[in-house]
Amino acid sequence: MTARVGEELPPLRIPITRTLIVSGAIASRDYQDVHHDAEAAKAKGSPDIFMNILTTNGLVGRYITDHFGPRARLRKVAIRLGAPNYPGDEMVLTGQVTAVAEGLAEISVTGRNALGKHVTGKVTVSLAPDSAEDIPRPGHHGEAHGPHGEVLGPHGEVLGPHGEAR
């Protein structure tokens, strides 16, 4: 996958549901009541529950890897939150490539909702090779590995001990 400075990523529209907010908080082990208990959130001055930063961070990462493909790897995600994401709203993520060098791309990302900018930041991603010839093969120097150390085939599939796809 290639990237060019100035390239605009297509927008990603994400409906903000109670289920997304609560499940994101649980998945990230953030048990703060403002992320799952509407009455507690109201008692603390919020009109409703709201999304935590770890869920937002995951959605930003998804936005980047959806665009650059399954072989792209996030190297750095630096975000700042602004307007809260409340249930019933929609967040629209947009991005622009701001730098490309040595197999890495930097993308400026913004996520907006009805209240304004929910998230702003920069993401650095390592780009996947452009062709199958550039993809490391199992059993060769520099073979590709998945997030759990498994050996990956030329299309990102997990390979067994003898090089067969699982």
Summarize the structure in short.
This protein is an alpha+beta fold. Helices cover 19% and strands 30% of the residues.
List keywords for this structure.
166 residues; alpha+beta; five-stranded antiparallel sheet; 30% strand
Give a structural overview.
- By secondary structure, the chain is of the alpha+beta class.
- It has 3 helices and 5 strands.
- The chain has helices at 18-27, 38-43, 53-68; strands spanning 8-15, 73-81, 90-101, 104-113, 116-126.
- It has a 5-stranded antiparallel β-sheet, covered by helices on one side.
- The longest helix has 16 residues, at 53-68.
- The protein is globular.
- It starts with 7 loop residues before the first strand and ends in a 40-residue tail after the last strand.
- 22% of the residues are buried.
- Residues 131-142 have low confidence and may be disordered.
Q: Which stretches are low in confidence, meaning pLDDT under 50 for 5 or more residues running?
A: 131-142
State the separation between the terminal residues, measured CA to CA. Answer: 25 Å
Sheet of most strands: 5 strands, antiparallel
Give the CA-based shape.
globular
Q: What is the gyration radius calculated from CA atoms?
A: 19 Å
